[in-house]
Amino acid sequence: MRDASRALAPLREARSLLDALGALRARDPAALPGAAVDRLIRELRDEKRRVSRDREARSAAIVTCMRLLRQSLARAQQPDFAAMGAKPLSKGMRRIYRKGRRALAEARSRPSPEALHEWRKQAKYLLNALETLYGARNGKSGKLARRLQRLAERLGDDHDLDALARHARRAGLLQTAIARRRAGLQKKAFALGRKLYRGKPRRFPAP
What we know:
Blueprint: H1 2-6, H2 9-27, H3 34-53, H4 55-76, H5 79-82, H6 86-109, H7 113-134, H8 139-167, H9 172-196
């Protein structure tokens, strides 16, 4: 299912960059140079239209996504999967939680875009597992799921801003605004991460 969503990444990228730029501009309009931002918006819109018009690439991405989703569904319907008890599920949850703690430690020691993106993926895996396996909505698991959602959103915004910065290398003032916003997002993400991953994996509670 992860690979299925990855197949659609090229179709999402131009839209996500436009959204990131729009949110950045809305936060502090006076800090961004109007002409440079307008030019970048036109470039991103042109890129979005180009991707949308590329029917062959779009069709191939959708076909790949649908094939992988069907494979996932077929796997989930097999008797050995459907009959899986609570023990391997709890073990799997602890494994995902442990990998998330390691990703957090790596991001804290080396907050590169790659390390932050890996931490975001691990947070999303844990969130997906909670919601899919346990329907996490209320109680302790619900609180954990909501925190994971906020963490994934902050790290996702940071990831989109990093991509926007690489796309707009020549816009100096825009780079300053992006760096300031990314610093704020990362500060909040690490504060939330300390709360989420402070427990030991072996004590990670199955909801």
